[in-house]
Protein backbone atom coordinates (compact mmCIF):
# COMPACT_ATOMS: atom_id res chain seq x y z
CA UNK A 1 0.00 0.00 0.00
CA UNK A 2 2.80 2.45 0.94
CA UNK A 3 4.76 1.74 -2.28
CA UNK A 4 1.63 2.38 -4.34
CA UNK A 5 1.19 5.74 -2.64
CA UNK A 6 -1.83 4.50 -0.71
CA UNK A 7 -0.75 4.50 2.95
CA UNK A 8 -2.59 2.55 5.58
CA UNK A 9 -4.33 4.61 8.26
CA UNK A 10 -2.35 5.37 11.40
CA UNK A 11 -3.76 6.53 14.73
CA UNK A 12 -2.38 10.02 13.98
CA UNK A 13 -4.04 10.21 10.56
CA UNK A 14 -7.32 9.24 12.22
CA UNK A 15 -6.89 11.94 14.90
CA UNK A 16 -6.47 9.45 17.74
CA UNK A 17 -4.15 10.20 20.67
CA UNK A 18 -0.66 8.69 20.46
CA UNK A 19 -0.89 7.20 23.94
CA UNK A 20 2.05 5.89 25.96
CA UNK A 21 4.83 5.67 24.99
CA UNK A 22 4.03 7.41 21.68
CA UNK A 23 3.35 10.84 23.19
CA UNK A 24 6.93 10.88 24.43
CA UNK A 25 8.20 10.54 20.83
CA UNK A 26 7.54 14.26 20.51
CA UNK A 27 7.24 14.82 16.78
CA UNK A 28 5.83 18.14 17.94
CA UNK A 29 6.78 20.03 21.10
CA UNK A 30 6.24 18.74 24.62
CA UNK A 31 5.99 20.71 27.82
CA UNK A 32 6.72 18.84 31.02
CA UNK A 33 5.45 20.55 34.15
CA UNK A 34 5.71 19.50 37.79
CA UNK A 35 2.95 20.72 40.06
CA UNK A 36 4.03 20.12 43.66
CA UNK A 37 0.62 21.22 44.97
CA UNK A 38 -1.07 18.47 42.95
CA UNK A 39 1.81 15.99 43.49
CA UNK A 40 1.99 15.24 39.79
CA UNK A 41 3.96 15.77 36.61
CA UNK A 42 1.96 16.73 33.53
CA UNK A 43 3.15 16.16 29.97
CA UNK A 44 1.47 18.49 27.48
CA UNK A 45 1.81 17.42 23.87
CA UNK A 46 1.41 20.07 21.18
CA UNK A 47 0.14 17.46 18.70
CA UNK A 48 -3.62 17.25 19.23
CA UNK A 49 -3.29 19.02 22.61
CA UNK A 50 -2.62 15.72 24.40
CA UNK A 51 -2.31 15.55 28.19
CA UNK A 52 -0.54 12.83 30.18
CA UNK A 53 -0.69 12.85 33.98
CA UNK A 54 2.00 11.16 36.08
CA UNK A 55 1.08 10.86 39.76
CA UNK A 56 3.99 11.25 42.18
CA UNK A 57 4.67 9.12 45.26
CA UNK A 58 1.64 6.90 44.68
CA UNK A 59 1.48 3.12 44.48
CA UNK A 60 0.27 1.59 41.22
CA UNK A 61 -3.37 0.60 41.68
CA UNK A 62 -4.30 -3.04 41.08
CA UNK A 63 -4.78 -3.63 37.35
CA UNK A 64 -8.45 -4.55 37.85
CA UNK A 65 -9.15 -1.04 39.13
CA UNK A 66 -7.46 0.87 36.27
CA UNK A 67 -9.79 2.12 33.55
CA UNK A 68 -7.77 1.47 30.34
CA UNK A 69 -6.88 4.64 28.46
CA UNK A 70 -4.59 5.94 25.75
CA UNK A 71 -2.09 7.12 28.36
CA UNK A 72 -2.80 4.42 30.92
CA UNK A 73 -2.19 5.18 34.57
CA UNK A 74 1.28 6.49 35.44
CA UNK A 75 2.91 6.68 38.86
CA UNK A 76 6.40 7.95 39.59
CA UNK A 77 8.94 8.86 42.21
CA UNK A 78 12.10 10.91 42.21
CA UNK A 79 15.25 8.87 42.88
CA UNK A 80 17.89 11.56 43.15
CA UNK A 81 17.71 13.51 39.87
CA UNK A 82 15.91 10.71 38.00
CA UNK A 83 12.13 10.49 37.64
CA UNK A 84 11.22 6.78 37.61
CA UNK A 85 7.82 6.31 35.96
CA UNK A 86 5.69 3.16 35.67
CA UNK A 87 2.60 2.98 33.48
CA UNK A 88 -0.11 0.32 33.25
CA UNK A 89 -3.64 0.17 31.85
CA UNK A 90 -2.85 1.22 28.28
CA UNK A 91 -5.66 0.38 25.87
CA UNK A 92 -4.90 -2.57 23.60
CA UNK A 93 -5.73 -0.54 20.49
CA UNK A 94 -3.00 2.03 21.21
CA UNK A 95 -0.38 1.51 18.50
CA UNK A 96 3.34 2.16 18.92
CA UNK A 97 5.75 1.17 16.14
CA UNK A 98 3.41 -1.68 15.13
CA UNK A 99 4.27 -3.56 18.35
CA UNK A 100 1.24 -5.56 19.47
CA UNK A 101 0.46 -5.61 23.18
CA UNK A 102 -2.04 -6.84 25.71
CA UNK A 103 -3.72 -5.00 28.55
CA UNK A 104 -0.91 -6.45 30.72
CA UNK A 105 1.75 -4.31 29.00
CA UNK A 106 3.88 -2.23 31.36
CA UNK A 107 5.98 0.77 30.38
CA UNK A 108 8.87 1.87 32.62
CA UNK A 109 10.72 5.13 32.13
CA UNK A 110 13.76 6.83 33.63
CA UNK A 111 13.67 10.54 32.84
CA UNK A 112 16.71 12.70 33.62
CA UNK A 113 18.85 15.58 32.42
CA UNK A 114 22.24 14.43 31.10
CA UNK A 115 25.57 16.27 31.26
CA UNK A 116 24.89 18.00 27.92
CA UNK A 117 21.62 19.47 29.30
CA UNK A 118 19.59 17.07 27.15
CA UNK A 119 16.48 15.52 28.70
CA UNK A 120 16.67 11.74 28.33
CA UNK A 121 13.75 9.27 28.58
CA UNK A 122 14.97 5.65 28.77
CA UNK A 123 11.94 3.44 28.10
CA UNK A 124 11.31 -0.27 28.61
CA UNK A 125 8.16 -1.99 27.33
CA UNK A 126 7.30 -5.36 28.86
CA UNK A 127 4.42 -7.65 27.92
CA UNK A 128 4.86 -11.36 28.54
CA UNK A 129 1.94 -12.17 26.21
CA UNK A 130 3.55 -10.56 23.13
CA UNK A 131 7.23 -9.86 23.77
CA UNK A 132 9.86 -12.56 24.39
CA UNK A 133 12.09 -9.96 26.05
CA UNK A 134 11.75 -6.31 27.13
CA UNK A 135 11.81 -3.77 24.30
CA UNK A 136 14.19 -0.92 25.21
CA UNK A 137 14.74 2.45 23.54
CA UNK A 138 15.47 6.09 24.38
CA UNK A 139 13.95 9.44 23.47
CA UNK A 140 16.02 12.61 23.89
CA UNK A 141 14.86 16.22 23.99
CA UNK A 142 16.62 19.55 23.70
CA UNK A 143 15.32 22.56 25.55
CA UNK A 144 13.69 25.21 23.38
CA UNK A 145 14.64 28.87 23.86
CA UNK A 146 12.58 30.66 26.52
CA UNK A 147 10.91 32.67 23.74
CA UNK A 148 9.46 29.52 22.11
CA UNK A 149 5.67 29.30 22.23
CA UNK A 150 3.84 25.99 21.92
CA UNK A 151 1.16 26.34 19.29
CA UNK A 152 -2.31 24.90 19.15
CA UNK A 153 -2.65 21.81 17.01
CA UNK A 154 -6.19 20.62 16.50
CA UNK A 155 -6.61 17.49 14.42
CA UNK A 156 -9.41 17.83 11.90
CA UNK A 157 -9.75 14.69 9.86
CA UNK A 158 -12.80 15.85 7.95
CA UNK A 159 -10.94 15.24 4.69
CA UNK A 160 -9.41 11.88 5.65
CA UNK A 161 -11.27 8.73 4.65
CA UNK A 162 -10.51 5.03 4.89
CA UNK A 163 -11.15 3.40 1.52
CA UNK A 164 -12.92 0.03 1.07
CA UNK A 165 -9.53 -1.70 0.66
CA UNK A 166 -8.38 -0.31 4.03
CA UNK A 167 -6.00 2.29 2.64
CA UNK A 168 -6.08 5.98 3.43
CA UNK A 169 -7.66 8.45 1.05
CA UNK A 170 -8.58 12.12 0.96
CA UNK A 171 -12.06 13.48 0.45
CA UNK A 172 -11.88 16.11 -2.29
CA UNK A 173 -13.93 19.31 -2.16
CA UNK A 174 -17.13 19.08 -4.18
SS summary, helix count: 1
Would you report the number of β strands? 10
Quaternary organization: single chain
Mean pLDDT: 88
Strand order of the largest sheet: 1-2-3-4-5-6-7-8
In N-to-C order, the SSE pattern is HEEEEEEEEEE
Largest sheet features:
8 strands, mixed
- Helix content range of the residues, please? under 10%
Q: Tell me the span between the first and last alpha carbons.
A: 26 Å
Instruction: Please identify the structural class as seen in this structure.
Output: mainly beta
Sheet-strand content, in percent, reads 35-45%
The gross shape turns out to be: globular
Account of the protein in words:
The chain is mostly beta strands. Helix content is 2%, strand content 36%. It has one helix and ten strands; from the N terminus they run H-E-E-E-E-E-E-E-E-E-E. It has an eight-stranded mixed sheet. The longest helix has 4 residues, at 19-22. 20% of the residues are buried.
Keyword list:
two-stranded antiparallel sheet, globular
Compact description:
The chain has 174 residues and is mainly beta.
SSE order and pairing:
Blueprint: H1 19-22, E1 30-35, E2 40-45, E3 50-56, E4 73-79, E5 82-88, E6 106-113, E7 119-126, E8 135-141, E9 160-162, E10 168-170
Parallel strand pairs: 3-4
Antiparallel strand pairs: 1-2, 2-3, 4-5, 5-6, 6-7, 7-8, 9-10
Amino acid sequence: AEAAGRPLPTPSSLCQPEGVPGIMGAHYSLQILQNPGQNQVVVLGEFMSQIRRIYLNEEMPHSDTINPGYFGYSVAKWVGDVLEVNTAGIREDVVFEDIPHSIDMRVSERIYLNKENILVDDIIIEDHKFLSKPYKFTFMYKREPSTYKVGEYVCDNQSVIVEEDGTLGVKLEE
